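Team,

Forwarding the record for the chain on the shared tracking sheet. I've put the sequence and predicted structure together so nobody has to dig through attachments.
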Amino acid sequence: MQLLKALWALAGAALCCFLVLVIHAQFLKEGQLAAGTCEIVTLDRDSSQPRRTIARQTARCACRKGQIAGTTRARPACVDARIIRTKQWCDMLPCLEGEGCDLLINRSGWTCTQPGGRIKTTTVS
């Protein structure tokens, strides 16, 4: 008798989990982002000036509480809101692996320096 009750409880729990997954899938329809993720919406590059490329991108993020849209490893990401408030940009690890990060003097952005000496500057607007 105990075994039968345990099997019914297990079957009920499995059905409950299945229904939760189905309902969750309905809420995450096409065009919606999962919590804590970002996607690039637009990316524009301007190479009209010699030896200089200006790139502008717009990202859409669905960040969790206490997070805000930022950049990690040169990709849009949700980062701790404290980093943005204090303008400690290098704390969000915005540069690629092997690059060095330095704050701009006025804290309006950061630079990523590659081992070969090439410098990428990012400003926040």
